[in-house]
């Protein structure tokens, strides 16, 4: 419910039973909150309370304070969704007020909303996937490889404007293969965006190389060309040429390739473009994933399109993709027997899952448009909320808005992270899945000892984005009612945060 609806549920103890009945009819929530002049909760009133009063002969003009005492069942601001549901079940109630430490009523959770979860980014299947999967079963091509895999590789490559593609079991597998194909091994240094999911960095470590992390720039939130230039110059002065650079396109938006590509070329560092989150995005009318020596996509269940689990490695270099296919099928040599001269992996995508991917790829444009509409609705509905800054879409960028993300400002003695966490707790209590922005790699215990280059002296952009950053539900299959519900809850949760900090 929105803040106006919540406020309409609050009545003073001097309000009459007749006024309470009218308010119950108008709000249609089945409950009212009786509060004193300081907004402290005194009790709740339901339809049942008013019916029992009428049967007992209490006048409609009697004040609510005339009703039998009934201490409310409440939870505090730190209560989880599980705590709320446990209280509902124990007391056989469908509404639980939330009060702060001073007893002020600040929120109301209903059983109905706890049965209707809004997910961050759920799979969205179309009409063609079932037929394509059935074709795989009918033809008995259900193991890795097959005609759907071949077709998916061709269709994906054409969609992103590259010549060759190799389908893999996951985006992480594609990253691992890509780094190995670029020759990354023990003792090497690999540059990597810090603001990303850990899968961007782990293959570097797993190959025995050392990651060096690069900060974000403030506008697009992607890898900072300014920090990259400093890092490349510093490493060159130490006699180090990075073996590769993993450049991440964050939350469906390309990095600033016009600045990054020439920098890497000048120092002779090949780019592995991590486009796991940005299929369908463009940068200056060129598809995301077409800038690197190699690039990877992910088809995990929460991505723009999904194969349940899967990925793709793409390149204009036929030799690299041919080698990727070999490595992903245990590096078997073309011999009658099983011959191996290098180690490989079981990384190929199944024909069944590739059929799902082909169906999903056919509706990519619609999925992107739907996510952009989700973002636009959020932006418009929350335009008047103070202290909220959306992830920008700089000139020349066309983002998929895979996830709609914003960053909160601090103030009034409270940190952005405290407000972020309070909002996330609030949303989760109402059964809405939201997440912090990725925790940067340079702040992860796993990579605490690695070097990190700031966007500017004293300006850690990635850290600030993490501390105040929130990702909202962004699925292309969200209903209009779900979108409106999230907008109302975010506005209410942030208003509560500002009021609590004041």
From TrEMBL:
BP terms from Gene Ontology: polysaccharide biosynthetic process
Pathway it works in: Bacterial outer membrane biogenesis; LPS O-antigen biosynthesis
InterPro entries cross-referenced by the UniProt entry: CBS_dom, CBS_dom_sf, DegT/StrS_aminotransferase, PyrdxlP-dep_Trfase, PyrdxlP-dep_Trfase_major, PyrdxlP-dep_Trfase_small
Cofactor(s) the protein needs: pyridoxal 5'-phosphate
Reaction(s) the record says it catalyses: GDP-alpha-D-perosamine + 2-oxoglutarate = GDP-4-dehydro-alpha-D-rhamnose + L-glutamate
This protein's UniProt keywords: Aminotransferase, CBS domain, Pyridoxal phosphate, Transferase
GO molecular function: GDP-4-dehydro-6-deoxy-D-mannose-4-aminotransferase activity; pyridoxal phosphate binding
This enzyme's EC code(s): 2.6.1.102
Domain CBS: 3-64, 66-129
Family: Belongs to the DegT/DnrJ/EryC1 family.
Protein name: GDP-perosamine synthase
Annotated source species: Thiomonas intermedia (strain K12) (Thiobacillus intermedius)
